[in-house]
Amino acid sequence: MGLESNQGTEREEDTAVISPQDPTLLIGSSLLATCSVHGDPPGATAEGLYWTLNGRRLPPELSRVLNASTLALALANLNGSRQQSGDNLVCHARDGSILAGSCLYVGLPPEKPVNISCWSKNMKDLTCRWTPGAHGETFLHTNYSLKYKLRWYGQDNTCEEYHTVGPHSCHIPKDLALFTPYEIWVEATNRLGSARSDVLTLDILDVVTTDPPPDVHVSRVGGLEDQLSVRWVSPPALKDFLFQAKYQIRYRVEDSVDWKVVDDVSNQTSCRLAGLKPGTVYFVQVRCNPFGIYGSKKAGIWKRSGPGGGACEPRGGEPSSGPVRRELKQFLGWLKKHAYCSNLSFRLYDQWRAWMQKSHKTRNQHRTRGSCPRADGARREVLPDKL
Amino acid sequence: LPPPAHLCLLTLLSPPLSSAAPTSPAEPISQAYSLALYMQKNTSMLLQTYLQYQGSPFSDSGFSAPELQLSSLPPATAFFKTWRALDDGERLSLAQGAFLALTQHLQLVRDDQSDLNPGSPILLAQLGTARLRAQGLLGNMAAIMTALGLPMPPEEDTLELVAFGASAFERKCRGYVVTREYGHWTDRAVRDLALLKAKYPA
């Protein structure tokens, strides 16, 4: 091919060769290199030549003229390579022009990759993620390969779709068996060696999980200041599943790290959270856990909503959590005293609560008569009696 | 329709009968010129991006190593008088030869870089795009030659086998020379095509 170095306009073409070419070295090791010049016409000399490493001129005491046409270099205690394409060690002519070069690859062998975790979202594919085992960098380009095989039979397979959920991940799209264990591991290789992670054994069914429910909305409940309504949509993948789903909600106040969890949301797609601090920002998440004979032990993935918050109550049924029950008792007590209502409904309850909160604020205890709204919006005086 | 008008319509519909005279080269020259101008806008970015990925001294600001050359790439520089006096055939033939060599070298550099700098999609994409544009320009120049009735130069393999054994440093240098010369030849193509544009106005 002829990569040449033309010295100005003179006919003579000096070429040089550095040895070794492209060496791979451990961090901290030493290197002895030579730059040999071949002049045409002969007479080229090693006098005046100098070395640079990554653009910086090396101190003259590291160089030595070996013979008329060879300049030597002794480097000790090498640092890790500055770029993955290799450190540039260059031999320059007296006028600064490049005569020859060699790329140095200095680094460490890879460490065992760790923390392999895998999941399947549809019982047909598998996505895995791992962490490179590194107490810091290896300085060399490291190649990762995810491998898998049936535990008791068959050959090793290699995953081919990388970087699907981050830099250290791989996706196996098909040809996976259910109800039988797989062995999965990751191999890391670079110029200095390779390392293999521990083997993870799993059955695809054990790691089936669901995407979070889409469209989680949290909203206030009318004028109430300590309740929120959470609504979501059932994840579309659910209809293909062989198992059912149970939802879970968790919520926390903005500046806290402690989540409160509402476990038993069964398969409704809405929930009311109560007993919250008024005037605070809450974060709410909803997730869908697989459940049933084919259900896995792996929990679903949380889906965030915007700031909002609350704890769940089933609509129209018996309120089960503590604070609501207490309040309901208060309400009924108040009703007994002050009003008579044939239609006891949550709507009435909400109105009462909103009114209670307002009156609390103004520090006025209004002992007025309550009234029951009728379906047509007209109000009717309430007489104490039936309750 | 009255007969004379009918005849007129027929004449308009039938193509010109002459096949010996070449078609006007103005259109393909104009297209090639636009493409070369467009390519010229990106050549320095390609060179800079390439150098960034090779590390120092290549990535140092203002890096220049004119002493590095490739014998498999024709030089873009020429004496002005000689260049000005080239006839159409020679002018286009030299440019074609250069861009043909460049498409092959750009492919080689891209392959080298996917090995030296794996995981650098921006650089690889730019090298790929440069090669495609060079190929486009080759097509446009072929159209000009056809329009001028000139013979097409044969397509040659410009890379010798010895290119495959290059060391990492040699490959870095090679890519520098290729991206540099791609810029020089694009600048020259703009000048060549401007001359032709003036010579064969639309």
UniProtKB/TrEMBL annotation, chain B:
GO terms for biological process: cell surface receptor signaling pathway; neuroblast proliferation; positive regulation of neuroblast proliferation. GO terms for cellular component: extracellular space. Residues 1-20 form the signal peptide. Keywords: Cytokine, Developmental protein, Glycoprotein, Secreted, Signal. Its main location: secreted. It comes from the Eukaryota. It holds the Pfam family PRF. GO terms for molecular function: ciliary neurotrophic factor receptor binding; cytokine activity; leukemia inhibitory factor receptor binding. Gene3D superfamilies: 1.20.1250.10. It is found in: Secreted. Belongs to the IL-6 superfamily. This is Cardiotrophin-2. It comes from Mandrillus leucophaeus (Drill). The lineage of its organism: Eukaryota, Metazoa, Chordata, Craniata, Vertebrata.
